[in-house]
Amino acid sequence: MDDIEKLYRARKTILEMIKDRGYIISKELMIEDKDDFKKLFYSKNLDLRVDQEGKTPVYIKWMLNFKIKPNMIKETIDTIREEHFSNNSSSKIILITKAKPNTNISKIFKDKEFRGTELFWLNTVIFNITHHILVPKHTKMNDEEVKKLLSDLFIQNKFHLPLMLKSDPITRYLDLSSGDVCRITRYSPTSGQYFSYRVVK
Fold first, then answer.
1. Residues 76 and 63: beta-carbon distance below 8 Å
2. Neighbours of 184 (CB within 10 A)
3. Contact, 114 vs 77, CB < 8 A?
4. Structural domains for the chain
5. Which partner from 4, 143, 189, 196 sits 20 to 30 angstroms from 103, CA to CA?
6. Which tens digit of pLDDT belongs to each residue from 121-133?
7. Interval 140-199: pLDDT, tens
C-alpha cells in the first residue's frame, strides 16, 4: 500500500471518527474520489477544520515528516491555536503523524497545557476499528441514561460497572473521558440483541 492510499484511507477513518463523535460531516469533506484526493494531497491541503454550532471546533493536522520531535509537536499545536482558535482553550486538535510517536512524544499529551489535543499514528487509522466484524457497537450514554441504568441495576456508584481503560482504542476513537459510560450492543444467534455496559477508568 503506497503513501497516498494510506492517507486516503486514514483521512476517511478520521472523518468517520469525527462523525461518530456527533459532528456533521459534509459530502464535500469526505472526498470519495481518489483522483480528487490526489489533487488535495499534491496541493498539500490535507489539513482541515470542522465547525458545528454547539460543538467544540476541531482542527485535524497531518504531520507527514519522517521524524518528529517533542518540540515540533509543541510548536505545531501552538501555531494551530494561535492561527485558528486565537488560543481558545476549548478547541480540539487532532494530530496524525506518519512517523511512529515515541515515549517522549506521548508524554506531551499528559501535560495540562496540551489538554484538548489528540495524537494518532497514521498506521493505526488506516482501517476503522469500529467497522470490524468482531468489534461490537459502542455508544456513549448521556447523564439521564446513566442515572436510569444505575437505578435499574441497583448500583450507587457507576465505577462498580466493568471498567474500560482510557488507552482502549474505542475509548480513544470516541474521545471518552474518565467516568463516561458506554453501552455495548452485541448480537447472539440464540439471544438476539443484548447489552453490556462499561465505565471509563
1. yes
2. 17
3. yes
4. 3-127 (3.40.1340.10), 133-200 (3.90.940.20)
5. 4
6. 999 999 999 999 9
7. 999 999 999 999 999 999 999 999 999 999 999 999 999 999 999 999 888 899 999 999
